[in-house]
Records
---
Amino acid sequence: MGNTSSRVTAQDKAILDLKTQRDRLHQYQRRITVLTDRETAIARAMLAQNDKKRALLALRRKKYQETLLAKTDAQLAQLEQLTSNVEFALIQKDVVFGLQQGTRVLREIHAEMGGIEHVEKLMGDTADAIAYQREVNEMLAGQISNQDEDEVEDELAALEAEVNGGAKVQQPLPSVPDTQLPERREGLETPEREEPPAQAERREAMLA
Amino acid sequence: MSTTTPFFFPREYSFPPFFTRQTNLTTHHAQLIKWAALVLAYCRHHRLFKLSLSSAISDPLSSTAEPTSDTTASDLFHNRQLNRRLSLADAREVLDFLRRDGRVEPVDGTTGDVVWVYWRTPEEWAGLVEAWVDETAQRGGVLTLYELREGDATRGAEFHGMDADLLQKALGVLVKRGKAQIFGQEDSLGVKFF
């Protein structure tokens, strides 16, 4: 128990106290609810016995207890609000702690980077190095003459044409035959369709 | 969480020899197993956490009413339709059998008349509570024991309305595992889950 007891903080105890209080109110409400139910039953019984006075008394008691119930409701709401406030404050505390931690780490990292001057100097060095590199590039590029450059570009154009041309050859689809079918015009009768070959045969026979 | 549906007794319950101690050793063992299962099922159905042996056995002759107190189980050992009942010694033997199984434990401070009936062992209850705490993301939070048993938040949870002492036992299991800590005064105990 010795090392675990440290895990319960004073805040936890305070929250427990609040919650216990809330539970007490809860129990109290239940008790009152039972009482009001009983008073109603008593009033009903008294009315059945034609004892109006006592019925009224019972109802009055019930009324009083109902006001108590409303009061405890308000108190309960207050307690619950307080409890959730405390819990939220605890979370806020955690958030602040987290922010603090994060800021500290961030600052440490900045310190490792060596301050703004250092970064400025570094950026300047980088710019110098880039400029130097560009110079070197220009010097090397100068060795290729303009003529060579033109030839290279021509070759590129030729290659492009080839690639695009090759793609174009594959593109066209076979053309759709556009000759009209004469039979369709003559109508839907099928026997007529079969006639022409027969006539042709006859003609061939006559020729023979 | 009161159960309104009637408890359906097993087939054996309407079999008269079931209420008489069997002499054959094998039969007797089978009888004990049946009785043990019946006791657990009965208590689970009626959500009985404790069983008082003497009141379960010696019920008033005329009473046909439903069990009222939370430790009576008048129709468990007494089949009124058959007019058969288990004798005190036999009932004790059944509970003894359950005790060896870890399903029954004498309540502290009594002479063995009132016993816990663990249709869920404290370990199982602990698991349920822990699962609930996990599910409702209440790790690191403080809850009162009353809240766990009667609060609106646990309505619908299995352990809602369970016996206070048994709940404390179950939480004791969690404490031992280092998952929880019970603190506060005697009458207003709270528990913090880790």
---
Amino acid sequence: MNREKSFNILRTAVAMLAAILVAFVIIILISDQPVQSILIFLLQPFSSGRYLGNIVETAIPLIFSGLSMAVLFQTSLFNLGGEGVYFMAGIVGSIAAIWLKLPIFIFPLLCLMVGAGTGILVMLVPGVLRAKFSANEMVTSLMMNNICYGVGCYVLNNMMRDPAVSTLVSYKYRSAAMLPVIIKGTRVHVGILIAILCAVLVYLFLYKTKWGLQVKATGANAKFAKYSGMNVTKVIIMVHVIAGAVAGCGGIVECLGLHKRFEWTALPGYGFDGAMIAMLANNNPLGVIGAATFVAYLRVGADLVNRFADVPTEMISILQTIIILLISAEKFLHKYKQKWIEKDVQIGEVQNEGVH
Amino acid sequence: MSDYILEMNHIAKIYGNGVVANSDVNFNLKKGEIHALVGENGAGKSTLMKILFGMEQPSRGEIILRGKKTVFSGSKEAIASGIGMVHQHFMLVESFTVAQNIVLGMEPKKGLFVNSEEAVRFTKEMGEKYNLPVEPEEITKNLPVGLKQKVEILKALARGAEILILDEPTAVLTPQETDQLFEELNQLKKQGHTIVFISHKIPEIKQICDRITVMRSGRTIETYLCEDVTEQQISNAIMGCELNTSIERKVKKYGEVNVHVENLSYTDKSGVQILKDISFNVRKGMIFGIAGVQGNGQVELIDILSRKRAVQSGNVTFFNQDISGLNQKTVRELSFGYVPEDRLEQGVASSVAISENMISNDLENNDFQKYGMLDFRKIDEFVNENIKGYEIRCAGGAQPVGMLSGGNMQKVVVARECEHNPDILIAEQPTRGVDVGAAHIIHKKIVQLCEQGSSVLLVSADLAEILKLSDVLAVMYEGEIVAFFESTEGLNEEKLGLYMLGIEKHTLEQMRKAVN
Amino acid sequence: MKGFINLIFSVDFVYSIFRVMTPLLFASMGAVISDIAGVPNIALEGLMLMAAFAGMYFSYLTQSAAVGLLMALLIAITFAGVLAFFTLYYKTNIILGGIALNSLASGGTVFFLYLVANDKGTSVSLASKTLPNIHIPIIENIPILGDILSGHNILTYVSVLAVIFTYYLLKSTDLGYHIRAVGEKKEAAESVGISTIKTQAIALLLSGVMCGFGGAFMSMGYVSWFSRDMLSSRGWIALAAEAMGRQTAIGTAAASLLFGVADAVSNAAAAQGLPSDLVKTIPYLATLIGLAIFSVRIYKKQKEV
């Protein structure tokens, strides 16, 4: 069934292409200098080391959220709580980064662990409710997003706010807590290595261990998993713990890698991005790295066009919608697939008859 | 040409996943006949009928109905042309009343709303006209299987069906209910209806059909007059070769009691007592058969044994250990295997690979682990051995199990449950909807497991199967064991049928032997 | 605290419950219809957001609230149609399709807001219209009751009609029968020639109509402008209400009332000067807790056997 696989790749490619084409249409409609704008959108991201660096640094949080969603999707859990986890992990991790005092190396590591731990706690709410009482995890996780945001804002406003600055930001992080830049001349920080490490670990977990098999079985058919002697409740909770830890890491890595203070005043939107990236990657953790890079490239391009031609960067969300819709459309391009298969079968029939 | 009310010529159907369901099918019907369509599972009968009923469109070929070339783009057109279908799995909305089901899609109206009184009246009228009395205001969910089937047939007739397709209508019926169905079908035939009768049961076909068309691997092999062929000839045509399906059983030797059920009773949510004081023992090396019409408590009994339902009262032990505190996971740790009735519901995870389906119940096995991860070399070895041993037709262990035919999928389930060598195996309708070839392999493997010293509890509505495999046999009726046979010698399906319908009953003394 | 309690028992407070319930009722009826049909529409949030934007923008363009409402309905129905097309025709998973539409609405409305108002936050710079409030004769003169029941926005009354409509649609019309049949067992419906795709598409479009009303109310009644993500998860709360109402029109309306109260309490508390960041979370906490209690109860009921 290699046809199946190559067909999936084709569909993904078509979806990516369609997204870029739609971007063209939007730019043509809005920009006064459409040709130049399109060129900027397509090529400028590759034009300098700094922009390439932008792609990588944009990809980092996307990888984390994509991984987190891929694990959940593999279990057929539609939990969109990544948003809240990012925000809350950022807040709690930032508290550690502002007020603790530890040596280099250990300090950021501890902050990461604090972020991951916060992520786990936040995710456990929808996770436990789903695993034990089958409460709809999508609704509960979205409620958690709003709750996290409210509580986070309260903490930020009343405890962490730096009065010396006019905008709503926290005190500065201690410099020992921050993640070092690894490529000079860019802002690419150590977070990219952590992200890749996470991707590899999640990959091994999902595809090479018995737990991964349990996750997939639960996602494909929970009754079957239960009947086979798997503890489905435990599997669902375990998946939420992993998703929470990964997303929590993503939140604090983003804060400590790119910013000097906690700067988010709205939910960062990575939860929904994660859903799209996981789908682009067909829920494969290693594929997430590629998918996140592609989306990061689109973003950097859109950002550059925005500066040049005043096309709002929210254009990206339109492109994302197209990607999600087309990739998840099983019957999209189905006619061609059917023709392929019928052709294959006919050839096969002829060959078979030759053998007889 | 006008001989035939329907002709289907050179029909081919290729599905999106590359499965060739029909490759060159020729099928015709004479007005007023009962025409049998037989073949192994996956031979393409269902697909052909779906094409006739407009549910699928053929990739090639033509349909000629009453002399006119016809193309159906959906069931609606087929229904309008006088074709009706009674599916193997009933197409009834369970929460609706009988009348609501009968008029579904053609509801009588009063202003904006549905006219319920008219629907009830119409249902009664139809029932009388075709001699299929039903209770219009009953909720469909509460009807027994035989009545549901009547509603289905009536539903088709109410829509003006002249050609009636029945897909394995007797699979769920007792011998007595089957007789009644045949009477009703003969009457419809007299009224001028044409009936397509799909079945696996050759004696039935001989009994009721006029002509018979045999299909094999997506092609029609031959159409015979029923009286011209013997059962053996039909069977050979279906299989394509002669197949000996008898199973040799070495000397039976029973050991200690592995499964002990004592005074087990169970009452469901709505307060109905489903199981009444059930007691039996299954010994080592024994196949204990439980026969019975579906819905007489077998499902609940198995659910309790496989730890999906609570042990409310009574005592159940495996290997002398009380199981009431166990769950689906911990009971498996006792060396317990279970082949469930509905393979798609819980027997497999369709989108997951064959190999992963085959080891899902044995993940803790250290043979399959290496450095804390799965050892795929060992796993593939195990899986390939079983693919060979069970003759599973597939493209390899990595193929998603959902792409297999029903029979092959069931082999995967049986392989998983038997090849990890459980000391207790529950097999629930293990060959339902499975073709003769696959059924034979499955039967062989179950017997083999038993001969290795396992206890097997076989629950089935397929009497032929239960008579063939069981060492001892109990009959369940309305939640009770009403008969117990220490051997199946001298038993036949008709005799069992009497117990299954509650007409006869063994003495308490006789039934007490089940505990020995 | 005393002021707060007084406020809760005031006429204004009860009046405000009806006001905040309006979008919840619309959205949750949309949820009921689509879920019964077997195509749970989780894009309620996004559809309402788009409708809210369309209502604001077109009433500004034409200076007519009626045109605004029409366009709000049209946009919501169109995008419900897009969802129906992808899920029914291209077989996109309905949940993923819903996620996609929500993300489109959230970003797309800001995108267009910026193009038309040069602002990524609100549309206050555009003078858009609102739908009228209705004073019911006779009832408005009854003391207390009149103040509570009369003088609401026209869409608040429509939302009550929407509940009645949904109830009778499902209980006693042939379309309702088909929707239920398709949702419970689509093979059964297909086997008698009812088109699953058509029926589910109609159900999704109907949920689109509901969202059109709900969205229009937000930008042309609840307030008189559009702001980014102004639905603040009401579409999701509606889904929770639908689950707790067990897919029935009346039960769902009752659950919506519960969340409406929570929303009104949150507004009242904020007006009293309690910390707004925390107070804003009350409706979400209420939903989370409500859904949790509901799920636990169902779980226990099932476990008793």
---
Amino acid sequence: MSSEKKAIELQMQVRRNATEYQNSVKDLYSWEKDIKTREEAMKNAPAPTVDSKLPVRSHVAKSNEPTNKPTSQKAGSPAGSSASTPTEKQDLPQDALAQQHKKANDIKDRGNNYVKQADYERAIETYTEAVEVYPYDPIYFINRALCHLKLERYGNCVDDCESAIALDKTCVKAYYRRMQANESLGNNMEALKDCTTVLTLDPKNIDAKRSLERINDRLRKNSTKNGPNFSAANDNLIDILPFDKPAYKRSKQSMRRVPVVDIVTPRGNQQEPQQLRISDDEIDKIFNSNCGPFTEVKKDNTQKPIVKPEKIVEIVEKPKQTTAQSKVIGKSPASSEKEVKSVSQEPAKSTDADNNLKSVEQTYLKDSKEENNANKPEKTIKIAETAKPNSKPEPQAKLPSPTAMERIPAAPAGTAQFYVTWKELSAVQKYHYLKSIEIPNLCKILGASFDSDTFSDVMQTLHDFYVPNKEPTTAAVLWEISKNDEFTILAMLMSKEEKKMVASIMAAVKTFPKSNANLLDKLAKVYSVA
Amino acid sequence: MDKPQMIEHLHEAVNYTVYDTKWIPLSAKFLVLGSKPNSNGILDIYELNQEKLEKVKTVVKKAAFKCGTFGASSLRNRHFAIGDFEGRLQVLDLERPDMAVYNVKAHSAIINCIDGIGGTQLDCGAPEIVTGSRDGAVKVWDIRQGQEPVVDISPPPQMGDGINKSNTRRDCWAVAFGNTYNDQERCVAAGYDNGDLKLFDLRALAVRWEATMKNGVCGLEFDRRDIAMNKLVVTTLEGGLLVYDMRTQHPTKGFSWVEERNAGRSVGTNGVINGPKATVWTVRHLPQNRDVFLTGGGTGSVRLWKYEYPDRRVIEDSDGAKEGVAGKLQMVSAVTLSSQPVHSFDWHPDKLGLAVAGAFDQSVRVLITTKLNTL
């Protein structure tokens, strides 16, 4: 029953839908006919007038601006004023004069169009017309002046500008155009006056700034043509010419410092203190950054600062040496003689350091590295021996200086520390540094990174300092080095010079008192020195 | 059972990929834009002739056509604006289509979407065309102004090489004009592949509002272009359909909306929604009733929706700020037209219920929808 009903309903629905569709299709066909006739009618109808009243979006802002400030437009350029005409026309003029003004403006707009087309003759005619209608607006004169300028009738241009200025003293454009005309006429002084007027009226005018520079340049050039107007060259002055040599042609010598001194004129000196009345404290307060009291850093002669640190080093060495010496004294009972000798070594050291110093200086100045440092110490020792008697008391006087102690690095605790410090030290320092290491620890401290460079350094130190000082520990040091794991390789790779050095050390050690012949034999074997 | 019925009236198979279909205003003709297999652009004009379609004209150009609009042309001169795969915007006079009225290289990449306004409406500003492109830019054109856009809304230039650039620039998939209720006011809504939705105010030249959808925005349309913003329909990938109430903008919450997540899926025999989440490709409001609109889905189905306003469209929150209230969406009718996505659809502006749809199965269909006047 219900299913039958449903079926009937469905059929009804389908039928209704079908009729609905048929109706709508019929409707569509009639509409098609209708729309086709309408379309035809529209095609045959006259083309609609395209109304382009609505502004293009990107132009809207531009055309709105002049309406907001019509006063600025008057003094503005002719091109700018044309855009604002539609709005101006809408304003109803109140009286006859205003009406005339409006009429003149219309004429001017025509003139502006001619200017855009670069038809300056016509534009001049139009502006003249405008002037005849309404002679109280400077804009017509300025615009006409522009046309004259373009046509290179500079005299007329100046005349027009003057009439514009007579109407409006603050007319920037008039001054600017008169400047241009004067410049072209060659009246540079007049142009300069106009230019400065423009800049006073409109300080931000970039064109005018540029023109000012240009005119100034020209004035200067003209004045130099007639003869130089600056003072003759001073005798003290040196012309330093720029050089453009290629790099390979330039001098290999290092640059020399040339002290440059400011020449302060007395007038300048008088003026400066007047300007600087604010004290430093006040400045600090203002900027809220107290940097402590002001201390002047004095600059000495350029070469002195380089010398000074070397001297400090020299001072440093002495006490250390003496303390080391005193240790030795403690160890060996029969050494009164030695003590004298070792003390006598002190001046030798100092002169040696001095000598080193000089050589540093020399290398600094002359850039000559040829000098053989290896021979030096022996020479200096000789010098020292001759100088012995005089310099004996000196080291004792210097001994107690506390700052000196700090300069020698403390004995290294480990291998890494040793190598880092070692590289930084000078030859003399190395000696003391090496001595500060307890001999039984030496092998461990040299460690696995013991390389040929360090080896030769150590040998050099032994040769240069231990031997001349007749250190009793020399042999022990050599022995300790030989215990190092890397030593066997290093000994094999020893150069001839190094071997010679080791041999000389051995020979010297043999002459030492209390030399252990047994140990020396062993060393000779280990170092493979025959 | 008095629901509107959508019936396929005519069917025309073509031998090219259809990208857009549009009725020519005040005529029984529509045009089809597409890409031929050799990637030439093709424009066919068909005329309804009772039981059959008659091809009136064919225009072939060298770059494939993507989208077109009559929005900026008057009824009389029928200037059709087309965006193509090479980023060129051309305006063709359909009487003399060989020579473009306006031709500009608008974008560096394909123009995905186009919309026009100001052609037929009175007192709603200058005729303008907006284009959105894969290069990320949205540009507004006025054919009276040379080769430059009147407004260029481009993402800021990116640092880095070309590879990175292509990654960071969003692809603009949808644009729509709206809010043009007088000579000055006008808005452009733009949807991007990452789900960004931006509303640009062309008068103030500023971004008025931004939102981010869950998926890329495929379709955008204001219910009317030439009124103060009323509703904006947004369709997205994975079947999202959102209707924003654009009357009231809350200072912090923006516009309120109603969302339908299953709009892209096909409707089975008993009205059961099944199938995968499919893209909602397009949305078109009925020209005769702004609360009725149609969406074209990725499964080849189209759906007719009706928006029902709430009792009160505006409420005040605790701070006294006004906040819009979204209404409800009611699905009126659904029909599966094709096995492929229906991605272009156009209601005839003059005849209620007459529409043309283009699908990716290389065919165009003329549809009749009955009883729309009963809604």
---
Amino acid sequence: MFILSRRLVATTIAPPISPLPAPLRASWVASIMASMNVIAAALLLLVVGLISANVGAQTLRIGLAEDPDVLDPTLARSFVGRIVFAGLCDKLFDIDEKLGIVPQLAISYQWSTDNKILTLKLRPGVTFHDGEKFNAAAVKFNLERHKNLPGSSRRGELLPLTSIEVVDEMTVKLILSAPFSPLLTVLTDRAGMMVSPKAAQASPNSFGSKPVCSGPFKFADRVAQDRIVLERYANYWDKSAIHFDKIIYQPIVDSTVRLANLRAGQLDFIERVASNDISGLKAEKKFNVASITELGYQGITINTGKSDIAQKNPLGRDARVREAFELSLDRAGIVQVAADGEGEVGNQWVAPNSTYYAKNVPVPKRDIARAKALLKEAGVPNPSFTLMTPTTSDAQKVAQIVQAMAKEAGFDIKIQSTEFATSLNLADKGQFEAYLLNWSGRADPDGNIFNFYACKQPLNYPGYCKPEVDALLNKSRSTLDVAQRSKIFEQIAAEVLKDRPVVYVYHRHWLWAYNKKLTGLRTIPDGLIRVQGLKM
Amino acid sequence: MLTYFLKRLAAVIPTVFFVTVMIFCLQQLLPGDPAVILAGEDQDQNTVAYLRQKMHLDEPLPVRYGYWISGVMRGDFGDSLRIQQPVRQLIQDKLPVTLELAALAMMIALLIGIPAGIVSAVAKDSAWDYLANIFALWGLSTPNFWLGILMILLFSVSLGWLPASGYVSPSEDLKANLLSMIMPAFVLGNAIAAVLMRHTRSAMLQVLNTDYVRTARAKGLKENKVVLKHALRNAIMPIITLGALEFGTLLSGAVLTEQVFSIPGFGKLIVDAVFNRDYAVVQGVVLFTSTIYIVLNLLADMAYFLVNPRLRG
């Protein structure tokens, strides 16, 4: 290569120039230009000849913001993969708009008196895409697979599940080591998805490349980073709710290009529209926009005990400094500027409209005077810390606004832009002071707090550990009654939000845009697209 | 020629070996534990441990290299842990896409760049020359992603003539395939055409000023013969080199263009694999494209022999 490069340089030095005589030059230019014109005309003809609309009427085309990972519910790890699963794999239960549990493959459930056995009655007449029958044995197989398959990402979600007992063809018992209230909600997600035991056994190492489930659409094709094609399953148990023959999911990472595809009619539906495109879209007559408050949150995680760094910095060391930091923030302002108003301010792991929002700890108002007083009391009027921020433009915007707001109270924040994978690694090692991190959220609040605050849990980046909080977290898991659980969450909030290992900022909106002809769309807070009922 | 060819071929083997070592070692410099990143949002410890074991992350570096290279020798590039597909399959899927895009882009570049370069040199200081130079400057200074988005807005959103993005296999629908490839191929070809035009012009100007060209004209040869047969044949050598290098670059993936037009080629595959720390995919694809690059350079050297008789002696 070096030799070639040298040759290249040696032969491209321009020499002194002697132009051609004018008549020769003119004839030459004319002949070259004529040949170029012929080529250009041929290309133009080719383009014009090829142009024609060619759209399948029964196909729903959905633009995704990312390429999903493996399509095996046991191994899958990405949020975007769950969107595809919503068309491909039915679950034992689903959630509705108000996060209520609704039947899907299980038609009813019953807890034992000690809350340690969950009995499920299964839907009769359901078959997998390979024609195999769905029954209690299939449920047992799937739950055991979730628990035992090497690399399973569901094992942690089903940890208290000790055994599964087939009572009869359509009844199954889930036996737990201890009461576990989030179980039903867990079964509304990937842990509740059922795949064909026969297909899973036939290709244990590559099942995810050709999944066989029991949802409304069956897997047809996947070209990595290009498309996932699902075809209507003729024997679906609820086939009257399905009005498309095919769904094509297309990952298009750039939100501008995704939107251009919608506008050009190449897509019928796009998820995660950029917030600054919403006002323009609302003005257009061809599209509808949906906005759903997410189950997760955008927050600033503070290293309060993960490593020695916590004690070296006033923010990690002193709860008063963290309180001052929180008081310096105008959450509504952040949502307005960073997300064009597309978000809900919040100070907890669930949004204020959730049943489990702890009303005893409301969103504090910005109070610079109080923040300054707290910093003075802590003996650090001008604390300085580094805020590790993923490189996405949204995260950068939030970090810059936080930096400017906190400065008014005396904080000196340095923004450290870090590639996401690297930032996770640094957070895991405790090599950070503060970390702007979002969480996609789970339908049960347990999924938003247990792994973050219980001692030594994998997502406990703050390094937070308090036996009394651990006890409350475990108590919330063993209580089924909603009112009682709400009380426990209030106790947890009173304790944790006083310590502020995470300063919650806001809950993003899932923003969808779709062709106005598309009807029957349900806006469920998990941000997944239910295909049942969708009609064009 | 045979000796030269064999010598160059022999040099390819240590180069490829060096490339494998470099790919493997450089990848280790990427920050972050790949098992943690692949484990996704939940960070399930069981998953992390499994992935670590699958990727042999607990073993020393030379042992891991040994696992990989012994697989490569057997034609097994490993599996993508993210999407559970063999890397070989991914390469097979992406290669036709990347090849087609590269070939179309190169065709556009050659069709525009070389004639424009010749016109510019032959008609130096004329309006054509200035026009060609302005075109070259525009092609070189226009960012691909920007031009891509503008083209989408014009041809897809406003006019509705072309699909905004996506890829259709030619075996599935040739018409749809060409429609989906026109814009990305033009965006890529446009930039290369500008480079080719500049180099063609420069090389032609140099050759047109030599004694043998003057002699050819003095003998009364027709101007098109002088330019095409005598001058261009000598001037084309650096263009071949440049073409091979540019084509090699295109084959390793046009990241931004593929991203904007959602073309599932090598560029998009590598970028996603790097961000997700899907090591087997990064290693396999980079090795494959590096080898193509090396082979193209070898072919460019061989092409010298065919074009330039002096090298044959």
